[in-house]
Write a structure and sequence with these properties.
This protein is an alpha+beta fold. Helices cover 39% and strands 11% of the residues.
Length: 133
């Protein structure tokens, strides 16, 4: 049974901030976490009320200052969540990306390691003792 309409009516009737404990006791909710969003599911109060240190207040009764504070806090929280998610994605890509190591090329007679330079003609064309990898 969805308690959201009943909780909304109660918040409107009260007209001010209501502690989460009071809402839970009145409606028989065991855990106040159900009032807030969990995973991808909205909580019982997510769409009808703003939340703060004082409890919950219906969005239509919130003052402009209360609404702006709530909006700024939610916006900051969501931006930080996106920033952290992007940082994790970049870290994962960096950790899982296959590192391409340059192939080691050696001169056949001496075993000396040869370094390939970008834009320089391949060494094997000039050296008869070149040893292919």
């Amino acid at each position: 049974m969805d308690l959201t309409p009943q909780i909304e009516a109660y918040l409107l009737a009260r007209g001010d901030w209501v502690k989460s404990r009071e809402i839970c006791e009145r409606f028989g909710i065991k855990d106040d976490r159900k009032l807030r969003a969990i995973d991808d599911q909205p909580g019982l109060c997510s769409r009808i009320a703003i939340s703060g240190n004082k409890g919950f207040k219906h969005i239509s009764l919130a003052t402009t200052a209360e609404w702006q504070e709530h909006y700024a806090r939610e916006r900051k929280h969501n931006i930080m969540a996106l920033v952290n998610l992007r940082a994790k994605r970049r870290l994962r890509l960096n950790l899982t990306r296959q590192i391409q190591r340059p192939q080691i090329v050696c001169e056949r007679d001496t075993g000396q390691t040869l370094m390939k330079l970008p834009g320089v003609r391949p060494y094997e064309m000039d050296c008869p003792t070149y040893m292919a990898p």
